[in-house]
Structure formats: C-alpha cells, structure tokens
Specification:
Distance between the termini: 68 Å
Low-confidence stretches: 1-28
Structural class: alpha+beta
Helix content: 25-40%
Oligomer: single chain
Number of domains: 1
Shape: globular
Strand content: 15-25%
Order of helices and strands: HEHHEHHHEHEEE
Number of helices: 7
CATH superfamily: Ribonuclease T2-like
Length: 220
C-alpha cells in the first residue's frame, strides 16, 4: 500500500510540473525595468494578419481602403536567452499618444498591450518608449519590391533576408528572423542594440518559415 502512495505522489509532482506555466527567459521576480541586452523590432506583414480571423475584427487596420504593408508589431527588450515581460503595472497609454502611434501601429488595443507587456520592461516612460519605437522603425528601410505588392509575391526566405540586408547598411543576415503562418510570411524581425544599431539575434530568436518558398499576400 505504501508503495502505491509513493507512486501516486511522484505522479502528482510530475503532473504539476507539466502544468506549471513556462516563463520567458528568467524568473519573473528577477525582471527589473531597464535590465536587458538588446531590442527586437517586429514588423508584421499587415495583409497576412488581415487575412486571419483576428484581423477580420480590426477595422482600423483591415477595413475597406486600409492598405497597410509592414506595420510595427512591437519593440521588445531581449536577453541573450529569453526576454522579460510585464515588468511593472504600467498606466494606460494616453489617448493622444495612441493617436500619434496609429500610422505605425494601427490598433489601439495593440498599442496598449505592447506597452504593458514590453514597454514597461524598458525603464522608459510611455512617451519615451514610443518615441524609441518611431526611431527604430525609421531606421529600417523596406526593400522596394516588398513595400506595396499588388499581387502575391512568391519568394524564398533567403531572398527576403538578402533583400533586407541589401536595403539597410550594416544589417547582417544574422540580425534578421522571419515568421510564417504555414507558407505565408507574417513577420520580419530585426535585432537591434539599445542605441538602435543592428546586431545578431540571440539564441532564443528563431525563424519559423520552413517552406522553400513563402507567399507575401498583396495589399488589399
């Protein structure tokens, strides 16, 4: 009988371990605003997002006549392995600041989310954080053929990386990571230093584009 209780005890402990939430990077108690190694600038391909169920509900970004290409998903503090998140109980982003950011991040809900989850980890005020987001986006040039395609673009992941590297002086391929939803390009991610120079990505930032050729949805 005792042996049976021992087995049940270890099964319960093992199961609890599986159910425990996985935290990014380090233990949340160690996350100190301003303590991180570099930034990751995530640029979402808006036509792909707008083709998803979530995008169908975002009229400001995906409604009739909204022809966005690459939009800012976020500017995320990173550790060399992992990343901090939700570092402080930040106040909501003021409406005037939300309005300023809409040309780059056409979703008030996204702007508020990015500040809470990532901006609070920078040690900056909302105004300073989103000013940095604007500077980071301005530092990146989109290759001409990817700015506003009128038809689907079929391209290899390596070609996307090569074109971005060629269009941006000092941007090494090791600083570029791609995200895909199946065969469709959803995001280009660029790793940047704290002063917004380009740098190689850390080990935890990986590609998710597995197809030999991926598809960029056209602007709608």
């Amino acid at each position: 009988m005792r042996r049976g209780w021992v087995v049940l005890f270890f099964v319960a402990v093992w199961g609890a371990g599986l159910a425990a939430p996985k935290r990014p990077g380090r233990d949340r108690a160690e996350f100190t605003p301003g303590v991180f190694d570099y930034y990751l600038l995530a640029l979402s391909w808006s036509p792909e997002y707008c083709a998803s169920p979530g995008g169908a509900r975002e009229a400001l970004q995906c409604g009739p006549g909204k022809r966005f290409g690459f939009v800012v998903h976020g500017l995320w503090p990173q550790f060399e392995r992992g990343y901090p998140a939700d570092c402080a109980a930040g106040e909501p982003v003021p409406p005037a600041l939300v309005e300023q950011m809409l040309p780059l991040m056409p979703s008030p809900r996204l702007i508020q989310h990015e500040w809470r989850k990532h901006g609070t980890c920078t040690g900056l005020t909302p105004e300073a954080y989103f000013r940095l987001v604007r500077r980071a986006r301005a530092a990146v040039r989109i290759p001409e053929e990817f700015e506003a395609p009128a038809r689907q673009v079929y391209v290899t992941p390596d070609t996307i990386v090569t074109r971005f590297a060629a269009a941006n002086r000092g941007l090494p391929p090791a600083a570029i990571r791609l995200r895909c939803r199946g065969r469709f390009l959803s995001e280009v991610r660029l790793c940047m230093t704290k002063d917004l120079g380009f740098r190689p990505c850390g080990a935890g930032v990986r590609d998710s584009c597995r197809a030999e050729a991926v598809i960029m949805q056209p602007l709608r």
